[in-house]
Amino acid sequence: MRDIDTLIDEAIGAEERKLLDQIGKEPGHFGQLADMFTTGPSAWVNVVMMVAQSVLFIAGCWAAWEFFQATDMLIALQWGLPAAVAILSSLIIKLSMWPSMHTNRIMRELKRIELQIALAGKS
Dihedral sign, CA of 2, 3, 4, 8? Predict the structure, then answer.
């Protein structure tokens, strides 16, 4: 089966190709991540969440280090439970950004489809 992008390129005319070139190519994974932190109304929220995630991860690693160094059971529990909570919390915060990235990808594709429908309606 042929690539869908190749089929679209073969089907569109010169005017449509010019408009699609203005939209640009699909950004890569790191480009999409950078867009989450620099553009849009929730960019500042994403920055705050990444700072909180980093702090929780570092605190969790420090508490895990203390947990593995503990010789008494009570001290191990005092360090182990916060380590687990902090590391899991940092993971949850990081995973909460994936739906936002997926939504941005879907919106970009919808705009391409809207453009193609508008151009098809002109002809």
Answer: negative
Q: Could you give the number of structural domains in the chain?
A: 1
List of residues 6+ apart from 63 with CB closer than 8 A? 79, 80, 82, 83, 86
Which range of residues forms the domain containing residue 11? 4-122
CA distance 105 to 19: 19
The token pair that represents 113 in the structure block: 């489809």
pLDDT digits (tens, 9 = 90+) for 8-57: 666 666 666 676 666 666 667 677 777 777 777 778 888 899 999 999 99
Block residue for tokens 């420090």: 62
The structure's pTM equals 0.64
